[in-house]
Amino acid sequence: MQYIIGCDLGTTATKVGLFDKEGNLLSLSRKKSNLIYGKDGSVTQDPYEMLQSVINGIRDVVEKGRISPKDIACISIDGQMAGIMGLDRDREAITPYDSWLDVRCAPYAELMMERAGNLIIQRSGMAPSINHGPKILWWKNEHPDIYRKIYKFTVPSCWITQELAGLSCEEVFLDYTYLHFSCLADLKRKCWDEELLDIFGVEKEKLPLILDPWEIVGKLTKEWADKMMLLSGIPLVAGCGDQAANNLGAGIVEKGMAFDVAGTASCFSFLVDEFVPDVKYKTLLFPRSVLEEYYYPMAYINGGGMNLEWAKNELFREFTSPDPFSTINREIEKLSASPIIFIPHLRGRSCPNQPYLRGVWAGFSWEHKREHLFRAVLEGIAFEYAYYLKIIQDLVPGALFSEVRVIGGGAKSSIWNIIKASVLGIPYIELDREECAIWGTALLGGYAVDIFSNLREKAKSSIKEVKRYQPDEKLYSFYQRLFPLYIETLEAIKKVFQKHQDLFS
């Protein structure tokens, strides 16, 4: 037997899965992440704590799976994409992981946009936001002493893989699915962009090597193997970003598919075979798919899933059952849709970059209940998705999308799936696999060591439809009328928050 280990370094947890070569999940480990929130807008994680979560998780799944360590064919890790960390010459982490939720670099996103916004979008595929380029400039300008000591910038999943393989700092790598978040790369050519580096004074030597996601970067050293109760010499694969892994694991491998990751960040993407950077709206990211010939233009709501958690805790505090969302959803299903608008950007808008925005309910009156407000939260995220859909259909004329596949905690909400399907006018598909990211990264591992000969076909055949939610005609008609109100409210309130953004800094 041959087994594959896939690991996902997520925002809220590190998940590790043990799979057989058919794609069956044999055991799963989940280690909660420790996010450190600062009063200055910082959100960080300890890289060594993240490393330990991977070690503990791998040991757990091997023990639970009751398999022989000699039968493990490979290990592959994916991770959070927009954050970054710095290493010294000895490959030690000399910065915390500067999370994608950390907004301290926002002024440098604006600076990059002012100096070379269109060029960055054309080359890297996205406008500067709370991501690598602005974060690098933040370290360079706000902490120059630390910046000088940083030998390489990297991301946690790649650093942990590097540690497990005992690679030198000269071998620090990044796979091409992360490149759009750098704002310093030529995405189509898969290389660092000399012109952008020169404009912003970033040394190319501080940036990692760029690899394909399925490259074998090294083998597990005895030191780490002993800690995980494994054998040394297990191949370690470059891996990819968590969103790219999610797409692959969910079988998003054909043009015309859309994908909703209803998790901590509400991510919505489309699979296309053209690179058409969003210079016009400066909203959609245009990342490379794991599959070389495809791209998955996407946008996300910063902490979209956290909006629901906050609304549950504040509006329904007495709901203390093991699954309070099910109770809330049952109450919402009794209601008719109402013209309440919710702006879902409680910690700023990332797509496009408007960090000064905050959450708003508009249009409610005395007859409305807390259930109406909660439903508006669900609809607000759906309307933001509709905005993304409108943009991709403008950038890629004639683009048609036959289905939206949904995963994450929000995928379990029938009422939310119906709302989204009715807002977008596209059927929503619930899948038989919940843990798509760890399966996607495991797929890469299996492909790297020749367990799978065709990555696309294996991804396609390993996932099945559980339930299909068709758009509700009456709801669709109502939402078509309500969507312009959402856009107009967003545009109006954006100006107010921008004018008074010093209150929220």
Descriptive tags:
six-stranded mixed β-sheet, 15 helices, Nucleotidyltransferase, domain 5, alpha+beta, single chain, globular, 2 domains
Structure description:
- By secondary structure, the chain is α+β, with helices and mostly antiparallel strands.
- It folds into two domains: 3-247 and 439-444, 2-Layer Sandwich (Nucleotidyltransferase, domain 5); 251-432 and 472-504, Nucleotidyltransferase, domain 5 (2-Layer Sandwich), CATH 3.30.420.
- It is built from 15 helices and 23 strands.
- The chain has helices at 47-65, 106-124, 132-142, 144-149, 156-165, 194-200, 222-227, 242-249, 304-315, 324-333, 370-395, 414-424, 436-448, 455-461, 473-499, and strands spanning 3-9, 13-20, 25-32, 36-37, 43-45, 72-79, 85-87, 97-98, 152-154, 173-175, 185-186, 191-192, 209-211, 216-219, 235-241, 257-262, 266-270, 298-301, 341-343, 360-362, 403-407, 428-431, 465-469.
- The strands form seven sheets. A six-stranded mixed β-sheet has the order 3-2-1-6-15-14, with helices on both faces. Strands 18-17-16-21-22-23 form a six-stranded mixed β-sheet, sandwiched between helices. It has a three-stranded antiparallel β-sheet with strand order 4-5-8.
- Helix 2 packs across helix 3 (132-142), helix 8 crosses helix 13 and helix 9 packs antiparallel against helix 11 (370-395).
What is the total domain count?
2
CATH top level assignment of the largest domain: Alpha Beta
What sort of overall outline do the alpha carbons produce when their principal axes are compared?
globular
| Termini gap | 56 Å
- What gyration radius follows from the Cα positions, in whole Å? 22 Å
Number of helices: 15
Number of strands: 23
Q: Which percent range describes the beta-strand content?
A: 15-25%
Helix content: 25-40%
